[in-house]
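hey team, just a heads up i'm posting the complex here instead of the shared drive bc the drive is being weird again. everything in one block, sequence lines first with there labels, then the predicted structure for the whole assembly after. its two chains so it's a bit long, scroll down
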Amino acid sequence: MTLTDQHRPAPSPRSGAFLEVRDLRVHFPTDDGLVKSVDGLSFGVDRGKTLGIVGESGSGKSVTSMSIMGLHKPGTANISGEILLDGKDLLSCSREEVRRMRGKRMAMIFQDPLSAMHPYYTVGNQIIEAYKIHNDVSTKQARAHAIEMLDRVGIPEPHRRVDAYPHQYSGGMRQRAMIAMALSCDPDLLIADEPTTALDVTVQAQILDLIRDLQKEFNSAVIIITHDLGVVAELADDILVMYAGRAVEYGTAEHIFNEPEHPYTWGLLGSMPRFDRDRSERLVPIKGTPPSLINVPPGCPFHPRCRFEKNTDGLSQRERPELIDNGQGHLVACHMPQSQRQQIWRDEIQPLL
Amino acid sequence: MTVTETTGATDRREREDLLTVTGLVRHFPIRRGLMQRQVAAVQAVDGIDFTVKRGETLSLVGESGCGKSTTGRLITRLDEPTGGKIVFEGRDITHLGDGQMRPLRRDVQIIFQDPYSSLNPRHTVGKIVGAPYRLQHVTPEGGVKKAVQAALELVGLNPEHYNRYPHEFSGGQRQRIGIARTLALKPKLIVLDEPVSALDVSIQAQVVNLLEDLQEELDLTYVFIAHDLSVVRHVSDRVAVMYLGKIVEIADREGLYGRPMHPYTTALMSAVPVPDTKRRTQRDRIRLQGDVPSPINPPPACRFHTRCWKAQDICKTQEPPLLQLAPGHEVACHFPENAPDQKPSGTPADATA
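-- predicted structure starts here --
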């Protein structure tokens, strides 16, 4: 679509973005109760832009991406809200329609390439299959394309490797082959779910560079899902911080890293040893553990773990804070007034990082 | 036994050696054919030397397949070395049998990476943490139950959870159970094999802090195996960088992170993603090409020469010895960074990119 020059995510729902998610809710009924994996999530991504979704395990990151791709088994999940891809609502499309969009309109890179690739088919066959479905080409042409894609992602000897099976690839090569597969039909939207978590740092650096280069070339919209703030800082233009199925902070990468306002984001930043700063004597962890999604704490779901919970006079135990724009396109869901949040960040949090 | 005259952690240099490893080798044979003849060997660890001083933390870092975990299993004697020597507290334990090792297991313990598979799901926490007493026929003061509950309390778990099963705990709590089990017999040396990499960021920080507190309280010695360079910098006194079964650089923390000398160390460090958006544009990253070569058939001489941008002919023919180039800083490289060239003889070395 059109490349908007506005850098900041406007308050949701923002219209006109290439991918727009509005008030997405994904609930799974189970024997133990209703699991509210995603509970009212809105965001948007433009073409040529990268959105980073950050959160701990169980925060709903992957469930969100699976709903966009339409990969939830019918009948298991109750999905509501709107997912607009180029103006078309994916949730009201039939499964067959969504299936046809997968690959060409949107593609996904999974965390574990070994289980995401079919062990019985060669890597080449798996790329050829997808390419032939979306393009009217002969097998020979598709094969040439597959070799070209493998070459592009830096697989050595692609002519030979195209006939190899996934288990014959090393971990880094498998992940690159997955990327080649995902990009073989020039998708407009690429979702990368923890694309580098299983990889070593040197390979991770190669893969991140690759995603960045290919995005520039194809002008795709990219969503990168990770728990590693370092990885999103490398790639993302906008960042969405998720906690217990909801967004707690949403803004540009500059805002999130330089003036974060949510105590959970502070906690994440304080938990990581910083490679680029002097070594701190002690890390500042977030106390407690992430909540169960069946029993999300009432009020602000983060309040049992929040160091600043007392600043709200008990409001955070009763009422769920809304995600509110602080006036600069930076959205925060916290009961503390903005001036207080900024002051705490400046005086208490930032000096310790 | 205890070095009482040294005050605190600052005098670690004065402390005695707890563990000395010389020329340690572990080759896993590859057998083929009817006669199960050995046709090749995976050279997982191929001649490494290091010492661990009482009370310090030595980290082993490197990419997957570099032999760091095998080293951990060898020094805890969960695996039999092919060659070399392991001396623990002045006693050669290289080829002790199971029975002879058993009394020593009180002093040497290991914590595994995956808190899900390292705890028996059919045993209660009490039974898991109490197992060391049972196996060693030790009756702690006040009974096993009391000792187990004290250990649980020590690692920050509720002692009342004595009768619960592992599945009732989160990942971070399970890792704490594993830590409580290793601490039960008050060991001297603990090998930690990727103890935090399976945990969420906020939980990682809790466990790292816990490990630091316990070390101080109980005067423990750690061998910390990890691939995350930021975490390693945070916890270590000294760091050994491994590549394909060899130690390429070993130094104290300040030396290694401040003035890395081996090109591989430099490349590893430049690949670490940094959570800072300002850095994104102004970093010049060293992109290593390709993957780690196979340890079945490692490159001759300097094993890093296939991926090294400074490599010259001598690197392919002559293996660089591990030399001390600065106080407490040993490097195995002909053309180290931040130090004069170590070429034995011949032409002046103009390192080219």
